Wax synthase domain-containing protein (Populus tomentosa), 359 residues
Amino acid sequence: MEGEIKNFIMVWASALLLLWYCHIVGKIISKGVIRFFAILPVILFLFFLPLNLFTIWLGGPTSFFLSWLANFKLLLFAFGQGPLSTSPVPLSFPYFISLACLPIKFQQVPQKSVDKEVSKGSGHKSPLNHGLKIVVLAITAPIYLQKDHVHPKMVMLLYCVYLYIGLELVLAVVAAFARAGLRLELEPQFHEPYLATSLQDFWGRRWNLMVTSILHPTVYNPVMSISSRLIGRKWAALPGVLASFLVSGIMHEIIFYNIGRKKPTWELTCFFFLHGISLAIEIVIKKAFNGKWQPATVVSRLLTLAFVVVTAMWLFMPPVLYAEFDVMTRRECIAFVNFVKDIITTDSRFKSFITVTEG
């Protein structure tokens, strides 16, 4: 555990140095191809840097923030686009690295407002909202501990729940630090996805919104621009949707590999591409009916949730089990508890030694 923490510090120290270089490049090189080639080595370094980490709790978020989020924002920055590009005044370095690595909106707020928002929780949710989700984890934990005696499908369903709650809680912690320490507003990443009434609603407005916000300018818009010239603007969104989901699937494969070091099965890519196709079909149907017909909200919510859960259990969760993320998570939690115990024990012994020496 101690070695992993040292690697974690090394990785993020290196990332900060690389981003400092990009910040300088942005000041002296105009947007365009030359800036792109100046930043390209950094993008490659950030892509491989998380391979120095081997845990879910440290390696997973780091892979997501650096290999995906930071790199895509730097690609936009190279051509004068995205949140890192501001004119006429460039971002200060603290804001630059924060915006590069985290899913945040640039917004300064008074200290009282910060304290008030922090007390409400991440994404403008109350502590009760997150508290209830922690209770769900606590209630279902005994089922997981007895998973050998539970139907595999039920265990997989539990993993889906754990994945959602775990992601939201981790991002909530990041949000709290961003608000309190940086005075930056973190974009809400989850908006109760189980209430989605369509795949458009689920992926576009409720699930992991940081991914949507970064894929839109880096993948969707360029593909849509090209498609509009080839097939017309009416259907140009469809190739953009498919390309966005394909890229999302590939990036998930990379992150899963960084964490588990297991050869990709490409089921994740199939999962996201299937949802891309389904979303494209949904768009076509909506255009055909032109908003004149829509199922009842309860029905649409049930159908959407059922489709997401069934396809996730079919294509998304098997790679999770294949990489043994559940085993890794449990092992890391135990290692962390033991690490903290060792620190406390060592500190107590040191204090006792000092007391005896002084006596």
The chain has three domains: 2-101, 106-190, 192-323. The chain has a mean pLDDT of 84.
